[in-house]
């Protein structure tokens, strides 16, 4: 089975902007979320976008006034962002998000891990390690915002088949297969090639994390946590670091 990095770089990254409904629409959604939940600045400060992708949140964060460290394992997605950055204060880094502290030169006021990035980590120990690093990297009154899909309650039967997006030339469907601690996501892509359709299938594993478990893990690192409904059915946790 491909790794998360391999799956994204070779299967999803080339169509990711299309999956998101186009770059402009995706950044507009990201902007609405950033403006709704991210702290307003009283001075120039750093934000870190873990799993930044093509800049859905990094670009709005820069427009909001932050200097942004945008880290992602996909060079393809970061290259898409670079073509849109212009003069915005965004530093892009191709690396594992668990290595983000190596690229941060000063404490951050805000760290975000949005989309479904958190479930891409290999195990719960990696999640707890990330939370420890975030606590160390934040300013004393810093904020950590994360969104993810709660896969703790499995879908049953045909509900495991999820239509992602389709148009006249492309159809993307995913199928979920549950294990004890993970869910295997099979991404089934059909693309029109002239008069024929070509099928490509790739799969990777995501963690089954509950909102309660993530909240407890953050609290164990000294965060005060608020849980709320995020975009597209995701859980959103807003964690404030208390000195």
Index terms:
globular; four-stranded antiparallel sheet; Rossmann fold; alpha/beta; N-terminal domain of TfIIb; 2 domains; 243 residues
Termini Cα gap: 43 Å
- Strand-residue fraction? 35-45%
Assign the structural class, choosing from mainly alpha, mainly beta, alpha/beta, alpha+beta, or little secondary structure: alpha/beta
Query: How much helicity do the residues have?
Result: 25-40%
| CATH architecture classification of the largest domain | 3-Layer(aba) Sandwich
Shape: globular
CATH superfamily of the largest domain: Vaccinia Virus protein VP39
Number of domains: 2
**What's the total number of strands?**
11
Query: On the 0-100 scale, what is the average pLDDT?
Result: 95
Given the structure, what is the number of helices?
7
CATH class of the largest domain: Alpha Beta
At the fold tier of CATH, the topology name of the largest domain is Rossmann fold
Largest sheet: 7 strands, mixed
SSE string: HHHEHEHEEHEEEEEHEE
**Whole-angstrom Rg:** 18 Å
Stretches with pLDDT under 50, minimum 5 residues: none
